[in-house]
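Proteins fold reproducibly. Take a tokenised chain:

. . .
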Amino acid sequence: MSLPAAFVSVILIWSTTPLAIKWSALGIGFSFAVFSRMTVGVLLCAVLLAVFRVPLPLHRKALLTYLAGGLSMFAAMALTYWSSQFVSSGMISVLFGLSPLITSLGAMLWLKEEMLTPSKLAGMLLGVLGLLLVFQGGIDLGEGAAIGLLALFVAVASQSLGLVWLKRIGDDSPPLAMTLGTLVVALPLFFIAWWLVDGHLPEAVPERAMAATVYLGVFGSVLGFALYYYLIKHMEAGRVALITLVTPVLALLLGHGLNDEAVLPQVWLGAASIIFGLCLHQWGARWWAIIRAG
């Protein structure tokens, strides 16, 4: 698949993922929902590897990649599913819009990919301003929203720094193999979390929850992450994270239109601040050069 097609596919998948997370937990609880999703993902990924005869590397770099991906996936997804009890799907996507800024900061410190320029610093400050606006909107949405947003921010940091960790390892294993290895590491952790939090199978699974879980297992966990790792191999970490430039707005619209989620003005302003901060962070130096040349 071409890089542009993979890039657009990941945007579409990640835009719909927050709403699917909300629906998948209906009637079955967040811990069983995320464990079920990962189980579907592992089974499907194993079948695909067998059908397409993709090898599963077990050398040192591959094992480190599976460990890094599995740990960051568990932290990010467990906290995201838990916080979905308190915050809307749109706000989940808005906070994940901070990923490029956190990833870029991690890449500067860990990978030495780029320097901190005035435009990048301004972009990060706008991202922080957007985060504060989203938190203000979250507090206005009721009890539990603030702690949910805090947990969600930790989830975003876990995914972003996990991306930097994967880039630092620099493994060249097939993306599908990387996905399976990551899921295999993460799945036992999700099982332990479900056992400790709940430990009981639901008596019945609503149709919407079942459909959302299957969708997340197939597209969110397998196709989405396989394409994600494919992009990581061929693009800089900061550019891969720019996927979240578009997803917050799409997710807010989907949550509002399909799930009747309230979107307060502070949240829209926060999303706009984060997106503009991302643009300034990525292209600010180029814009300034054009302005000076003109």
